[in-house]
Design goal:
The chain is α+β, with helices and mostly antiparallel strands and 167 residues long. It has a single domain, classed as Alpha-Beta Complex (Nucleoside Triphosphate Pyrophosphohydrolase). Helix content is 23%, strand content 32%. It is built from four helices and eight strands. Strands 1, 2, 3, 4, 5, 6, 7 and 8 form an eight-stranded mixed β-sheet that branches. Strand 2 and strand 3 form a beta hairpin. The C terminus is likely disordered.
Length: 167
């Protein structure tokens, strides 16, 4: 069994032309067949290490990785999930709650295919599958709520919701 460890440090982070740190993240989701839209889609939220509300996995995009590698790494490190990364939901500029800096966050949907029993940040974060309504209510970051709204809109317009999932 391989030991999984989180990467950390700011020396290898990517920055925008404006000097903002580039952060990538995802909204992990899965389907529950035979339910109405609000209950048919569940999203995986994680706790902040400081315990301030619900979040989606996100973190710095490092110079030695592609954007998809960074998204996959953050999902595995923070939430212990793997899956298929889908088309970008958008890009948001937001102020850091910890540092006197602005970040540019790029979010993607992650259709979860595997949930790990062990992951690097399992002792500092809790993860929980919730309905979209619960995620909207518990998420304190407006830009993450907007990303979730975009995902719901995309899934609502998709034929995937009306089809029977293959599992």
């Amino acid at each position: 069994m391989a030991i999984l460890v989180s990467r950390w440090g700011r020396q290898f982070q990517r920055y925008s032309k404006a000097g903002n740190r580039l952060v990538v993240g995802c909204i992990p989701y899965k389907f529950n067949p035979g339910e109405e839209l609000d209950k048919s889609v569940e999203v995986l939220v994680i706790s902040s290490p400081k315990g301030n509300g619900l979040l989606f996995p996100k973190g710095g995009w490092e110079i030695d990785e592609t954007i998809n590698e960074a998204v996959s790494r953050e999902a595995m490190e923070e939430a212990g999930v793997k899956g298929n990364i889908e088309k970008k939901l958008g890009k948001w500029r937001y102020k850091s709650r910890t540092y006197d800096a602005y970040y540019e966050g790029i979010m993607f949907p992650l259709n979860v295919t595997e949930e790990l029993g062990d992951w690097p940040e399992m002792h500092t974060r809790e993860r929980k599958w919730v309905t979209v309504s619960e995620a909207m209510e518990g998420c304190q970051r407006p830009w993450m709520k907007e990303a979730l709204e975009r995902l719901v809109e995309r899934l609502s317009n998709s034929t995937i919701i009306t089809a029977t999932p293959p599992f």
